[in-house]
Specification:
There is one protein chain. The protein is an all-alpha fold. Helix content is 74%, strand content 0%.
Length: 325
């Protein structure tokens, strides 16, 4: 497989742009160019386009790019290619935070709910890292195993309290990634994830050095704890914003960084633009497939991503085992 080069970045951007244009015109409502031309700016097609299709497409791009980048950062900080926010308890912790706010302060603004979810996500991710330091890691597979177990425990606690306070239906809505509910005025928080992606790019070289290990990075003069803290904040904020806005998108941060790593390597500054672009394109493609498979009905993107991601996760496990053997 030929390595990716900057010269191929433009075709990749054009492909994502083509998927974005296709996303604007796929759906039950007739929002075809002919309908827009026939009905004019005040017609129903234009209203659907501006109120639903454009916000949905922007949300797909922002969430896809940000979650993929968050997965890349987490893999560099943990130094393991089998982790991402939905496999180490980060997303589950954010969901628990939303549930706590819904139970005790349901009238808080969405922005405040996002901050609480981010705080819970940060605490859950920090707990995961603390457990890793305390457990002897005799195999690279121990890291994702610990993450999945921690995520299961946090998810079980969340389900218990959701059942206790009769919020199970709401919990299912939060944990299923679904962009069909995205409308103008309900996705703008995702621009925070775009800011976090930009911050990750500015600190890309530091993440690359931090991924070499604490001792090595400290010898090079890098404040390892500060870089890890920055990475955790970025991952927590991105996870919280995406969960609050559209729900959980599983395995995205696992698939895309691994694909890019196979072709580029572990240099974060080189890989991050590709991770963001491929993440956005992958989410756009999965969403379009979800809208077409059982048309005029729709399969949530969380379901499609869960199926694709689980197969890819198994492939990584088998491939790594084969190489170790």
């Amino acid at each position: 497989m030929k390595p990716l080069s900057p010269a191929t970045l433009l075709p990749a951007l054009l492909l994502v742009a083509a998927l974005a244009v296709g996303s604007l015109f796929v759906g039950v409502s007739d929002v075809s160019p002919s309908a827009l031309f026939r009905e004019g700016f005040d017609g129903r097609a234009a209203q659907v386009l501006l109120a639903s299709r454009v916000p949905r497409t922007l949300a797909l791009i922002l969430a896809g790019a940000a979650m993929a980048v968050a997965g890349l950062i987490m893999q560099m900080l943990v130094r393991n290619r089998f982790v991402e926010p939905s496999t180490v308890g980060t997303v589950e912790s954010a969901t628990l935070g939303i549930l706590v706010v819904t139970i005790f302060a349901p009238d808080l603004p969405v922005f405040v709910k996002m901050l609480v979810a981010a705080a819970f996500a940060l605490a859950g991710t920090a707990l995961f890292l603390r457990i890793l330091r305390a457990v002897p890691l005799r195999s690279i597979l121990m890291v994702p195993l610990i993450g999945i177990l921690l995520a299961g425990v946090i998810g079980a606690i969340t389900t218990f309290f959701a059942y206790r306070y009769d919020f199970l239906q709401s919990l299912n809505a939060w944990t299923t990634g679904d962009f069909s509910v995205v409308l103008r005025g309900r996705y703008e928080l995702l621009w925070i994830s775009a800011a976090m992606t930009a911050a990750a790019y500015l600190a890309a070289d530091r993440f690359t050095v931090a991924g070499l290990g604490k001792e090595f990075s400290t010898n090079l003069g890098l404040n390892h704890e500060r870089v890890v803290a920055l990475g955790l904040v970025i991952v927590a904020l991105v996870s919280a914003v995406v969960v609050v806005s559209v729900g959980v998108i599983p395995f995205l941060g696992l698939i895309v960084p691994n694909v890019v790593s196979l072709m580029i390597g572990d240099n974060v500054r080189r890989a991050l633009p590709w991770v963001a672009i491929i993440g956005a394109g992958f989410v756009l493609a999965c969403d379009i497939v979800g809208r077409l498979v059982i048309y005029p009905y729709e399969i949530p993107i969380g379901t499609i991503m869960g199926v694709v991601g689980s197969f890819f996760f198994l492939y990584l496990l088998l491939r790594k085992n084969a190489r170790v053997a």
